[in-house]
Amino acid sequence: QVELVESGGGLVQPGGSLRLSCAASGSFSSSNNVGWWRQAPGKERELVARINADGTTGYADSVKGRFTISRTNAKNIYLQMNSLKPEDTAVYYCNTLTRLGTPLLSWGQGTQVTVSS
């Protein structure tokens, strides 16, 4: 019954920035932990950022210092991506997750981020 829809991706040059959005529909609580994953062709989906119900955050080493996850309310989650690199190119997905980082909902379509000169 809960659906998460990603948006905000696009083509950007190395060093540029993008802001991804995740909109939740249906029954969704601020008590949920939320994360952003990405998947590049031929690679497994990896968790790059998470924000917990208490506001604490965590990041993969590959994006630490460049990406910032935030939420304005229970149904709107964002990923600010700065200093983008070609290796950031991937489809980005949002999802709710357990404290151990396991996604809980079905995956949506994601949003494509392409970093290229």
What is the structure about, briefly put?
By secondary structure, the chain is mostly beta strands.
- Element string (H = helix, E = strand): EEEEEEEEEE
Kindly provide the radius of gyration, computed on alpha-carbon positions and rounded to a whole number of angstroms: 13 Å
| Estimated helix fraction | under 10%
In the sheet with the most strands, the strands line up as 2-10-9-4-5-6
Note poorly predicted spans: none
Largest sheet: 6 strands, mixed
Number of β-strand runs: 10
* Residue share in β-strands: over 45%
Report the mean per-residue pLDDT as an integer: 94
Tell me the number of helical segments per DSSP (H or I, 4 or more residues long). Answer: 0
Helix/strand structural class = mainly beta
> How far from one another are the termini?
40 Å
Shape: globular
Give an overview in words.
The mean pLDDT is 94. The strands form two sheets. This protein has a six-stranded mixed beta sheet with strand order 2-10-9-4-5-6, with no helix packed on it. A four-stranded antiparallel beta sheet has the order 1-3-8-7, with no helix packed on it. With 117 residues, the chain is mainly β. The radius of gyration is 13 Å and the shape is globular. It has strands at residues 3-7, 10-12, 18-25, 34-39, 46-51, 57-59, 67-73, 76-81, 90-96, 111-115. The chain has no helices and ten strands. 0% of the residues lie in helices and 48% in strands.
